[in-house]
Amino acid sequence: WVLDQVVPIAKNHVVVDVGCGSGNLTLHSAEKCRLAIGLDPSESAVRFCNSINSKANSVFIPAAGDALPFPDESVDVVLFVEVIEHLDQPMKIISEIWRILKKGGFAFVTTPNYAFPSLWAPVEWLADQSRMVAKMGGGEQHVQKFSPRSLAGTFQKAGFETVYLGTF
What is the pLDDT averaged over residues 137-151? Predict the structure, then answer.
């Protein structure tokens, strides 16, 4: 897992997976930390995650990212994987992530790379044109399109420091 190579998760950490989807990263993180919490605005996704969850140190909660249900500086690691590109106003959630992270905390963020020579843009266009993916909200899958530089700049505006920036 790329997560294991980049994210410093320790046994005493609280990890929050914002937009956890099917819960895979939350459950994977639970193997390494004190508490792993998966959040998703989809109640059906949360029901699914709770139905497959067998770990005592993980929980899944329905919650939107623009009002994270945690006190300030209470979380060690935030996972924000393949979510930001779907948001009309990502700075609201980025500010919330900044708020809940402890000083020295770590945010792991991934999104498709739209910078040339990445092949993501033509692959996505082909999938959309071939109707291989569902339309979201009556429009495109991704409402934000980031390059590595623009993603780092967006998070830096909220106060984050880039520790690692890469593509895969």
Answer: 76
For the chain, how many residues are written? 168
Give me the pLDDT at residue 163, please. 86
Query: In this structure, are residues 101 and 70 in contact, taking their beta carbons and an 8 Å threshold?
Result: no
Tell how far CA 117 is from the center of its chain.
24
pTM of the entire structure?
0.86
Helix, strand, or coil (residue 140): coil
- Kindly provide the b/e burial profile for residues 58-88, where b requires at least 16 CB atoms within 10 angstroms of the residue's own CB: bbbeebebeebebeeeebbbbbbbebbbbbe
Q: Say if residues 103 and 136 touch (Cβ distance below 8 Å).
A: no
What is the phi/psi pair of residue 145, to 5°? -130, 110
**What burial class does residue 152 get, using C-beta atoms within 10 Å of its C-beta: 0-12 exposed, 13-18 middle, 19+ buried?**
middle
Q: Are 7 and 36 in contact (CB under 8 A)?
A: no
Token pair belonging to 125: 């266009």
Distance (Å, whole) CA 163 – CA 159: 13
Q: What is the CA radius of gyration of the chain?
A: 16
Can you name the residues that pair with 11 across neighbouring β-strands?
none
Q: Tell me: pLDDT of 120 over 80.
A: no
DSSP state, 4?
H
